[in-house]
Structures are given as C-alpha cells and as structure tokens.
Amino acid sequence: MSAALPAGILLPETVLASGWFGVLGVFVAINTVMYLALAVAKVLPKVYPQDWLPRSYARSQTRSIHPDSTR
User: Fold this and answer.
1) Nearest 5°: CA angle at 23, between 18 and 26?
2) Cβ atoms 39, 33 nearer than 8 A
3) Can you give the residue ranges of every domain in the chain?
4) Which of 32, 52, 65, 71 is most buried, by CB atoms within 10 Å?
5) Global pTM?
6) d(CA 36, CA 30)
7) How remote is the C-alpha of 55 from its chain's centroid?
8) DSSP assignment, residue 52?
9) How far is Cα 32 from Cα 26, in angstroms, rounded to an integer?
10) What is the mean pLDDT of each run of 10 residues along the chain (71 residues)?
C-alpha cells in the first residue's frame, strides 16, 4: 500500500500553490500567533499601570502619632 502514494505527499502541488490555500495558511499563522500571545499573557503576572503612576491622594506630610516612622 505504500507504493500507491509517495512518502510525505498528501495534496497535489496545484492545491498547495492555489490562492485559497495561501489564505488558509495565513489565517492559521495569525491564529497561532494570537493563541500564543494569549497563553503567554495568561502565564505572566498581572500588570497594574496605577502602580507606576504617582498617587494623587498621597499626603505630603504624615499625620501619624509616630511622625518618625515610615510606612
């Protein structure tokens, strides 16, 4: 049965060179990259941009009963 098909050829060259097969290949490539990006984003810890920005509600002076202590 292996003599009927050459090893490794599943589709004829005309199908592989057609336009719709190229479009399908691009779709699969973009889908793979998006899936990879979502998987990596899910593994990484969450990033909160508020942690990098200065707080507008921070007091300029401490109002603690222990003024020498730092937070």
Assistant:
1) 130
2) no
3) 13-45
4) 32
5) 0.53
6) 10
7) 30
8) T
9) 10
10) 60 86 96 97 88 74 73 55
